Amino acid sequence: MSTFTDWTPEDAREHIAMPRAQDDKYSRGVLGVITGSDAYPGAAVLGVEAALRTGVGMVRYLGDDRPTQLVLQRRPEAVTAPGRVQAWLLGSGMDAAQRDEATSRRLAAALADGLPTVIDAGGLDLIGRASGPVLITPHFGELARVVGATKDQVASNPAAWAVRAAEELGVTVLLKGHQTFVAAPDGTRIVASSAPPWLATAGAGDALGGILGALVATHSAEVAADPGALARLAATAAVIHGLAAGRASAGGPLVVLDVAAAVPRVIADLVRR
Ligand SMILES: NC(=O)C1=CN([C@@H]2O[C@H](COP(=O)(O)OP(=O)(O)OC[C@H]3O[C@@H](n4cnc5c(N)ncnc54)[C@H](OP(=O)(O)O)[C@@H]3O)[C@@H](O)[C@H]2O)[C@@H](O)CC1
Ligand SMILES: Nc1ncnc2c1ncn2[C@@H]1O[C@H](COP(=O)(O)OP(=O)(O)O)[C@@H](O)[C@H]1O
């Protein structure tokens, strides 16, 4: 039985990249994002919004036309031309069965980059094709599909299934749920428990992907030097997400854009501690 270490706000604060006076947008980190689809364009908007609110030098969004238009309407800060990136966020709001050729090509190019890559939802079939360090962000149903189990089996012992998936797949696993379990092939085991159940709402996981993508892009060099850093960044994202949900909720229902809107204040409070 693995022991999972609780990830606290004090732990999380150590994993926020503070911009320095000499920084520019490129040196802070560029997150490449391929998410969303005609069927689920909102997932792209939520992920980009959350990434920008977490703090990153640039979000380079390279998804389909419809989500691109919606992302730009909501966030003209996003750059939609190809170019340099330091980490990738792939798969939220995509359906592997509906993927067209152009999307497959863009995903393949991203996966061949050798960069740290966060893979969510409709990108999870691509785990084995990534050439860089990988972090996956499944919910119980998605992890069940990936490891060939049932959702009920995963739900009955999520911590153990997160460990098993990390060991079998050789990637860092962030398993979503009321508690967020993070397991890495190097034996790192972390749990984050700051999220209120009000966060169980459609799109919350897409926002988590954006928060995590931004943290990875702003720590790309650290991850290249030590892929074990991905687990600590994953747990930090879960803590930020949970604390932001607590603010957006204030004890009542929340909407995901309000969770993203709360992220900058959560981070400001963390770094002030
Ligand atoms: N605004 C947008 O654009 C949004 C877009 N979105 C995008 O939609 C796409 C489809 O994602 P999806 O999770 O809805 O369906 P899918 O992967 O087929 O899983 C279904 C299976 O998994 C289970 N299951 C589901 N959730 C679970 C959970 N939290 N915890 C535990 N189990 C859970 C469920 O089990 P059941 O309850 O049926 O037994 C069923 O077996 C994806 O690309 C996503 O990014 C969403 O993010 C919403 C907002
Ligand atoms: N009962 C719960 N309590 C707290 N957080 C939850 C609960 N259920 C889900 N969450 C969180 O909400 C998010 C849901 O993500 P996900 O299942 O991928 O939904 P979606 O695909 O709709 O974005 C995850 O970050 C998860 O940890």
UniProtKB/TrEMBL annotation:
Domain of life: Bacteria
Entry EC no(s): 4.2.1.136
The keyword Disulfide bond belongs to this UniProt entry's keyword annotation: no
Reaction(s) catalysed (UniProt annotation): (6S)-NADHX + ADP = AMP + phosphate + NADH + H(+); (6S)-NADPHX + ADP = AMP + phosphate + NADPH + H(+)
Entry keywords, A to Z: ATP-binding, Lyase, NAD, NADP, Nucleotide-binding
The keyword Ribonucleoprotein appears for this protein: no
Binding residues for (6S)-NADPHX: 43, 93, 139, 206
InterPro entries: CARKD, Ribokinase-like
Cofactor: Mg(2+)
Record-annotated YjeF C-terminal domain positions: 8-270
Record: residues binding AMP: 176-180, 205
A family per Pfam: Carb_kinase
Signal sequence residues: none
GO molecular function, one term: ADP-dependent NAD(P)H-hydrate dehydratase activity
Family membership noted in the UniProt record: Belongs to the NnrD/CARKD family.
Description of how the protein assembles with itself and partners: Homotetramer.
Record-linked HAMAP family: NADHX_dehydratase
Function statement: Catalyzes the dehydration of the S-form of NAD(P)HX at the expense of ADP, which is converted to AMP. Together with NAD(P)HX epimerase, which catalyzes the epimerization of the S- and R-forms, the enzyme allows the repair of both epimers of NAD(P)HX, a damaged form of NAD(P)H that is a result of enzymatic or heat-dependent hydration.
Protein name: ADP-dependent (S)-NAD(P)H-hydrate dehydratase
